[in-house]
């Protein structure tokens, strides 16, 4: 199922300082130019296998996990939360996170539709990049194992990481492309969509299981421009709504 979220198109205008265009233009005959697509990795380019809830419980403890989850309905930003901890406590937390991430690497599977979508982007000479809160090692293994390359590809070693828009702005700068000529695709409202919105890019939320609904968008204040339940739906979105001009 694919949704065009008209609320965003009616209300959101990209930042004037970046050659702004109204996203409402997509509902007219004039199509916006799209020159690049940036993807999240875990849960977007790869099948979700990391048990994030278990990771958070192990890092935080059950009581603290429940408290933070109740205060953060859109999700827990574990990396941001542990930044205020002492160095020793941080180190232990990062070791736990690294262990869960290694389990994810051991079970790494490419998401259905990735190869086909990348082939389509290549045929149109549309650039593709990657931003993840995982580590560079995981990116390298993904590239080596599946031979589908993204460049630039930024891990959490790039600071500040998502949801800060700086990684996406960095990629736009490296490409010499305006943010309003780029789409951010990911499965996290609080990380990927927030990053894209903050940069002034178009956004597409991958929601395979129907995890997100209108209440989530209202509570977070984040309204993705598109929502799909499969990567295979994105090609049609791109062809229908954009001029794909490299």
Automatic annotation (TrEMBL):
Pfam families in UniProt: Hydrolase
Annotated protein name in UniProt: Haloacid dehalogenase-like hydrolase domain-containing protein At2g33255
Protein's organism: Brassica napus
InterPro entries: HAD-like_sf (IPR036412), HAD-SF_hydro_IA (IPR006439), HAD_sf (IPR023214)
């Amino acid at each position: 199922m694919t949704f065009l979220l008209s609320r965003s198109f009616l209300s959101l205008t990209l930042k004037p300082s970046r050659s702004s265009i109204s996203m409402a233009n997509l509902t007219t005959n004039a199509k916006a130019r799209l020159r690049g697509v940036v993807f999240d990795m875990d849960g977007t380019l790869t099948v979700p296998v990391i048990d994030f809830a278990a990771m958070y419980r192990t890092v935080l403890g059950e009581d603290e996990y429940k408290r933070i989850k109740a205060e953060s309905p859109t999700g827990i930003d574990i990396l941001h939360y542990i930044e205020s901890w002492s160095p020793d406590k941080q180190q232990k937390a990062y070791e736990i996170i690294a262990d869960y991430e290694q389990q994810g690497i051991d079970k790494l599977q490419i998401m259905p539709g990735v190869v086909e979508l990348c082939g389509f982007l290549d045929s149109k000479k549309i650039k593709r990049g990657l931003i993840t809160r995982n580590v560079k090692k995981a990116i390298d293994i993904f590239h080596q194992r599946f031979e589908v390359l993204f460049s630039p590809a930024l891990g959490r070693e790039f600071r500040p990481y998502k949801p800060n828009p700086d990684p996406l702005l960095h990629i736009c700068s490296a490409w010499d492309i305006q943010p309003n000529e780029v789409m951010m695709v990911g499965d996290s409202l609080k990380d990927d969509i927030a990053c894209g919105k903050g940069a002034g890019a178009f956004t597409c939320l991958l929601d395979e299981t129907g995890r997100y609904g209108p209440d989530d968008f209202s509570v977070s204040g984040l309204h993705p421009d598109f929502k799909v339940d499969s990567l295979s739906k994105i090609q049609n979105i791109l062809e229908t709504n954009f001029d794909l001009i490299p």
